[in-house]
Amino acid sequence: MNFKFIIERTNTGYSAYEQKHPIFTTGDNILELQKNALEAVNLYLDNDGIKVSRSNLEFDIDFKQFFDYYKVINSKHLAQRIGMNETLLSQYVTGRKKPSRKQVARIIDGLHDIGRELLELNLV
């Protein structure tokens, strides 16, 4: 059983709602929001005797909110790394343009590559 949440920025943090079930949650940051979403899903399923794990949850966030939250990711350098026009990625980040599915996949692949690299590093 999988649950897909849409994340939205609020004045006090973040909120999320599940697309197909009446499940809503909030958090001061995205990590807290994800933890709260898991708890909310398990409370929703409690009467059915079903318990899910984090792997059953998916979270969608738009480009602008993503780059606002993860300010440490520089869109100019990300564009260079994935071979994308810097202006085009900037337009996605600011919401002036909406990327195609192919472009979204390209950006996500680049972010995942960076994540894998970071997981393999130790700071000394």
Structure write-up:
The chain has helices at residues 30-45, 63-69, 75-82, 86-94, 101-119, and strands spanning 3-9, 14-18, 24-27, 57-60. It has 124 residues and is of the alpha+beta class. The protein has two domains: 3-60, 2-Layer Sandwich (Double Stranded RNA Binding Domain); 63-119, 434 Repressor (Amino-terminal Domain) (Orthogonal Bundle), CATH 1.10.260. A four-stranded mixed β-sheet has the order 3-2-1-4, covered by helices on one side. A hairpin with a 5-residue loop joins strand 2 and strand 3 (24-27). Helix 3 (75-82) crosses helix 4 and helix 3 (75-82) packs across helix 5 (101-119). The N and C termini lie far apart (42 Å).
Helix and strand content put the structural class at alpha+beta
As laid out across the biggest beta sheet, the strand order is 3-2-1-4
Q: Treating each run of at least 4 consecutive H or I residues as one helix, how many helices?
A: 5
Shape: globular
How many domains is the backbone divided into?
A: 2
**How is the CATH topology of the largest domain named?**
Double Stranded RNA Binding Domain
Most strands sheet? 4 strands, mixed
* CATH architecture annotation of the largest domain: 2-Layer Sandwich
